Amino acid sequence: MFFERPGSGETAVLVHIDFQAAEQFEDAGEFMELVRSAGATPAALVNGTRRHPDPKTFLGTGKLDELRDTIAAHEAELVLFNHALSPSQERNLERELKCRVLDRTGLILDIFAQRARTHEGKLQVELAQLEYMSTRLVRGWTHLERQKGGIGLRGPGETQLETDRRLLRGRIKAINKRLDKVRKQREQNRRARERGEIPSISLVGYTNAGKSTLFNTVTNSEVYAADQLFATLDPTLRRLEVADVGPVVMADTVGFIRHLPHKLVEAFKATLEEAAQADLLIHVVDAADPEREANIEEVNKVLTEIGANEVPQLQVMNKIDLLGSSPRIEHDDYHDPQSVWLSARDNQGLDLLLEALSARLGVDIVDVSVSLTPKQGWLRAQLHDINAVREEAFDEQGNAQLAIRLPKRDFLQLLSRAGEDPEDYLPQSYFEDAF
C-alpha cells in the first residue's frame, strides 16, 4: 500500500452528532459496527445535536471541550467521526485535540484496506485512498520548507508538499492505467458469456445482509463470509445450474452502505460493472434489520449511480430465522416472482430461490414431443446428454418418440448443428419471438 495503515486495536473515542437535515443522518449502531470491523477499541461515545456543522471544527466549543476531556480520561490515541469531515476541519480538530482524527470515509477506506485480497481489489482500494489523501497531504507537511540543494540538485527547488503531490499524481495515473486493463478484460469476459448466451446474475445488497453466505450455499463455494461489515470486497464468479435455464454465472459483489463515499464507487467501477451488465440482480435484504426499508433505498441509490437501476431485480429477504417466519415466494399481478423469503444460514427456502430464478430467467422453454428416426441418433444422444428427455418410447419402425423440455435457444442450436429444419419439430408459435 502507498500509505501504511496503523495497527489495529487502537483505543478510539467516537463522535456522533444528530443533525436536523435528513441527508446528514447517520446510524450510530452502524457506526459502532464499522469501528469494530476496523479493529479499533471503542472507549467512549460523544454525542450531541446541532442544526449545522461548525465550518471550522465541525463541533461547537462546548462539545469540543467535552471531547478533549474524554480523550484525556481514556488516554485515547484516535478520534473517529461518524460524519464526513472537510480537510480543514480534520486539520483543525487534530490541532485542537493533539491526536489523530479520522472521519467516516477514512474509516471505511481503512476497512477496505484490511479486506482487499486480490491484486485488483488492492489496486482499487489504493486508488480510493490516494484520491482521499490528496486533499489532506498538507497536514503532514505544515512547515513547507524548501528541500536542501546539493551538487547536481541546485535550482528553484520545490516544497516537500509539492513533491508528495507530484508523486501521488503519478501513482494515481499508473493505477488508473492498470485498472483500465482490468476493465477491458472484464468486458471481454462478459462478451464471451454473451456469445455463449449464458445469463449472468449479480448479488447486491446492504453490507452484512448475508450475500456471501447465500452465494456459498447456492454455489457450494467457500467465499469468506462473516457477521461483519464489508466481509466481501473482491468479486467472485461461480457457475450455477438452474432448471429450464441451464448454466448461469453468479457474481458476489461488495456490499453497499449509507453515504458510500463517491471515491469508492468510482474506484470500484470495474467491479460494480458486473452488476450493471447483469441480466438479473438478486437484491439481498436483511429482513430482521429494523432499518431494512432505508437500506433498500440506499442500495437502489448506488445502483442508480453505477447505471444498474434498469436491471431487473429479484428481492431476497434473508435471515427469516431471526423473525420466526417461514420460507415463501411473493408474486406480482402477473404471477412473476418478486421476492423470496429464506434463511441462507439455515438452508431454508433455497429451493424456492432456484424456482424463482427459473421463472425469471427460464423464458422460451420448449416442451414438446418429437419423433426421431434411427438415422437421427446423434440428435437423440445430444438431447439425452443435456438431460432434456423426460420420456422415451420406440415404435415398430424403431423410431424414438421423445418428450423433451429444454431452453428454446439450446434446441435451435442442436437442430442447426444437426442440419435439421426447426419448423419440422416446433409449432409456429415457437417462432414468433425467435429472431
Automatic annotation (TrEMBL):
Domain Hflx-type G: 199-365
Keyword GTP-binding: yes
InterPro entries (UniProt xref): G_HFLX_dom, GTP-bd, GTP-bd_M, GTPase_HflX, GTPase_HflX_N, GTPase_HflX_N_sf, P-loop_NTPase
Coiled-coil positions: 165-195
Compartments in which it is found: Cytoplasm
Record PROSITE patterns: G_HFLX
One of the Pfam families matching this protein, by short name: MMR_HSR1
Record keyword Hydrolase present: yes
SUPFAM superfamilies membership: P-loop containing nucleoside triphosphate hydrolases
Annotated keywords: Coiled coil, Cytoplasm, GTP-binding, Hydrolase, Magnesium, Metal-binding, Nucleotide-binding
Superkingdom to which the source organism belongs: Bacteria
An annotated Gene Ontology molecular function: hydrolase activity
Quaternary organization: Monomer. Associates with the 50S ribosomal subunit.
Recorded family membership: Belongs to the TRAFAC class OBG-HflX-like GTPase superfamily. HflX GTPase family.
HAMAP family, per database record: GTPase_HflX
Protein task: GTPase that associates with the 50S ribosomal subunit and may have a role during protein synthesis or ribosome biogenesis.
Name listed for the protein in its UniProt record: GTPase HflX
Species name: Larsenimonas suaedae
Gene name tied to this protein: hflX
